[in-house]
Each structure stands twice: as C-alpha cells, then as structure tokens.
Design goal:
By secondary structure, the chain is mainly beta. It has a domain of 117 residues: Neuraminidase. 11% of the residues lie in helices and 46% in strands. A four-stranded antiparallel β-sheet has the order 1-2-3-4, with no helix packed on it. The protein has a four-stranded antiparallel β-sheet with strand order 5-6-7-8, with no helix packed on it. The protein has a four-stranded antiparallel β-sheet with strand order 9-10-11-12, with no helix packed on it.
Length: 308
C-alpha cells in the first residue's frame, strides 16, 4: 500500500494491481479489497471537497469513485503511460495530477477531460536560462527539451490558496494561481524531497537520508514574492539516515514514517521514537481523532495507539 485517506469511518488505501483497500474503523478495522478497472499499481488517493474519491498510479491512470470507494471508474489514461505519484483537487471541478519526469495533468471539468502541461518554473534557474536561449532559436526544440528535463514530481499539497510541490533535485516550488505558474524556491537541500506538510506557522519538508526541514511562514511569504531570495530553513536532526516518506499531521500532532521499522513524532522540533514494527518500511500514514494512527506499507495497515 502506498497512500491512505479517510472518508467518514473508512480508511482507503491505494494498493498494488489496481486494488483499493477499504478499512472500516467501526467494524474492528475490517478490511475489504475493491478491484478497480486497472491492473496498474495505484500510488496515491485523495478526497475532493464534494466527497469524490480520486486515485492515480502507474500507466498514467486516473480513477474516480462517487460511492465512498465501493466502485471505481477509469476516467483517464495517459496515451504514453508514465507514472503518476499524486493528485490534488482545488475544488470540485479543478484538479491536478503529477508524476515522473515532470508529468503534470489538469482537469477543469471534474475529471471528464485531462490536459498535459509543462512548467519551466519547476526547473532550476540555470535550466530555465538554457531553455529561454533555446526558445529564441526554435519553439519546437524548446518544447521537446522542456518535456525531457523536468524532474520527478513526488507530492503536491494545497495550503489555503497556495499549492506546494516537492520532487527530485531539491525541488520545492509554490504556486499562487492554482498551479498555472510555478516559482521554484531557493532551498538549501538539493536531494530528492518526498513530502511537504503545512502547520499553522509554516511547512515541514522531508526527503532522502533523514533530511527534514522546517520553514516558517514569514520565510514562505518572502520567497513567494521574491523567488530568488534564499530561504532560511531550519534543518532538524534526524536519528536515522533513512528516506522520510510522509509527515502526517493532525491538530498540531505530527508523525514521521519512512524506510524504517521505526515511527517517530515531532515534539518542539525534536524527533522522538514512538514505536517500532516488523515492517521494513512505511509509505503513508494518517492520524485519526488524535487517538490512533494508521500506517500503510508493505504489510498493509498497521495501527498505532497515539497520544500527542
């Protein structure tokens, strides 16, 4: 399982071979497997404001459920395949899906149609300069090169009226116009980033080899108005050099999970061990009612009693 979302008293997880695992919290965590119209691995699942569920995955598939995940429809499949890593809906009609090699899809009609976009704002300044010089010579060469050098886009997060995206090569970018244009932020870490999560005062960003950063809201505001400005981020000391896949937060409580048997929590910028499991790694997590956390990974659902 690679991602999990809550819908009423159910947890739904994106899984292998086109399955969605559905856990009923009110029935002793009973799990049922729902087959979707694809055999592709599903990588992400999200809930839109109108209670529509969306899932994406390998082979460029986009799926929709309007009955709490009991049945799914394949609404789009990219003609060239590709891998989608995340999906986010800004409102009932407007959504974006992102993935490998800069794959970026947008719908403006509730998922009926999807269009691919290419955003040079997700590239480092030197790459943008190169592309602009190329564009002055040939628009065709510019479009071809842009499509080939975009980085993997790993996670997209909606924070109030802003979208944040993280990816490989230190990509941390923000959009103030629903993803139509992007400003790559001048961030200190240049490795792969896997998650970006908002708190009341700023954002947490996690990546490879135990890299964990906190950026205050004041710094984000400054960087949004001046993308060239260097962000003053705070690097958090992490006890293991493992990839941090997800930062799961709820009402100020934050859990950290990754390629490790250990689960950590954040306590005033200090990382504290919460528990250890037999699973070698976890990919996603969800805190429910600040009492329990459900972790998903190679061994399915794992339940953790949790108190902030």
């Amino acid at each position: 399982m690679l991602d999990v979302v809550q819908h009423n008293h159910y947890l739904l997880a994106a899984a292998e071979r086109g399955y969605v695992a559905k856990l009923n919290i009110q029935e002793n965590d009973k799990v049922t497997l729902v087959k979707t119209p694809t055999d592709a691995m599903l990588t992400a699942i999200t809930l839109a404001k109108d209670d529509t569920l969306w899932a994406v995955g390998h082979e460029g598939v986009v799926l929709r459920s309007v009955d709490s995940g009991n049945s799914w429809q394949l609404v789009y499949q990219h003609p060239n395949g590709g891998v989608l890593f995340d999906v986010q809906f800004i409102n009932e009609q407007h959504g974006v899906a992102i993935g490998a090699y800069g794959l970026f899809l947008r719908t403006m009609d509730g998922g009926k149609t999807w269009q691919q976009e290419f955003h040079d704002g997700l590239l480092p300044p030197e790459d943008r300069e190169y592309l602009q010089a190329l564009r002055a010579q040939s628009e065709e060469d510019y479009q071809f090169e842009l499509a080939s050098i975009l980085p993997h886009l790993n996670r997209i997060t909606l924070v109030e009226d802003k979208l944040f995206v993280v990816g490989e090569l230190g990509l941390l970018a923000v959009s103030t116009d629903s993803g139509k244009s992007w400003h790559r932020l001048n961030f200190s870490y240049q490795g792969s980033l896997y998650d970006v999560t908002a708190t009341r005062q700023g954002i947490w960003v996690s990546g490879m080899r135990g890299n964990l950063y906190y950026i205050e809201q004041q710094q984000l505001t400054k960087a949004t108005s001046d993308p060239a400005a260097r962000i003053k981020d705070k690097k958090i000391n992490f006890p293991e050099p493992v990839n941090i896949n997800t930062i799961a937060c709820n009402q100020g409580a934050c859990l950290l999970i990754g390629n490790s048997q250990t689960v950590w929590k954040l306590d005033n910028s200090e990382v504290i061990v919460v528990d250890k499991f037999k699973s070698k790694s976890f990919v996603s997590a969800l805190i429910v009612d600040n009492k329990f956390a459900y972790l998903v990974g190679e061994n399915g659902f794992q339940k953790l009693q949790y108190a902030n």
